[in-house]
Amino acid sequence: MNLAEFTERYDDRLRTDAFADADASANGLQIGPDDADIETAAFAVDAAEQTARTAADRGADALVVHHGISWGGIERVTGREYDRIAPIIENDVALYVSHLPLDAHPELGNAAGIADLLDLENREAFGELGPEHVGQCGRAPDPIPTDRLRETLEAELDHFGRGVQVLDFGPEEIEDVAIVTGSGVDWLDEAVEADADALITGEGKQKAYHMARESGVTVFLAGHYATETFGVRSLQDLADDWGVETTFIDAPTGL
Description:
The protein is of the alpha/beta class. It folds into 2 domains: 3-99, Udp-n-acetylmuramoylalanyl-d-glutamate--2,6- Diaminopimelate Ligase, Chain: A, domain 1 (3-Layer(aba) Sandwich), CATH 3.40.1390.30; 105-227, Udp-n-acetylmuramoylalanyl-d-glutamate--2,6- Diaminopimelate Ligase, Chain: A, domain 1. The chain has helices at 3-14, 49-57, 79-90, 100-104, 110-117, 146-156, 188-193, 206-215, 224-227, 230-241; strands at residues 28-31, 40-46, 62-67, 94-97, 121-129, 132-145, 165-167, 173-179, 198-201, 218-221, 245-248. Strands 5-6-8-9-10-7 form a 6-stranded mixed beta sheet. A hairpin with a 2-residue loop joins β5 and β6. The longest helix is centred in the first third of the chain and has 12 residues, at 3-14. 45% of the residues are buried.
């Protein structure tokens, strides 16, 4: 498959252009010529020296990630930036990035993956960001005890043995769940407004403890990396369907 077609298919499916003004990430093709051929694609959460070199070692023609290299511009390609970019350029590996578009997608996205894991029903867009949303909310088919929900997340997510931290200030059994993966505690007030019993996200901030306690909402901090593997794995499944050979690079951070 030609790289131009490869990127266009993803851009169309993910509505990449709709997030141009909302996202600091330069989504879409960040590195690579339009006329390259893609026979093998690697998928990872982060574009880093580790994942770039692994993609090259596995003979990938493209590396598809959630967190890319360019966040509003690169002034100099030196030091750490050089170490990340060099193996991509030297080995002719294209870099495709989808940040907020992949968070937001109602079927392929990171929040959608967790909602699928919990079999949530009556799903709606959640996590307002300008005209778009970057998460989902829904209702569990049956009330879930807090400990059981934590155990499910710990069993299913790649949290690198760090477990799932819980700010347990909500009801004993959880029905209505809001999800914004990664760094999503800034949407805790929206979860309160939505009458959610719990917010599932990746990492926390100091203020989240008191906000959760005062609002009576349970917050699950399940790991930034751990909550954001779903989207890139969904993109891998799409590439498999297109006849591209794929490989997943698991590089958990424990954060």
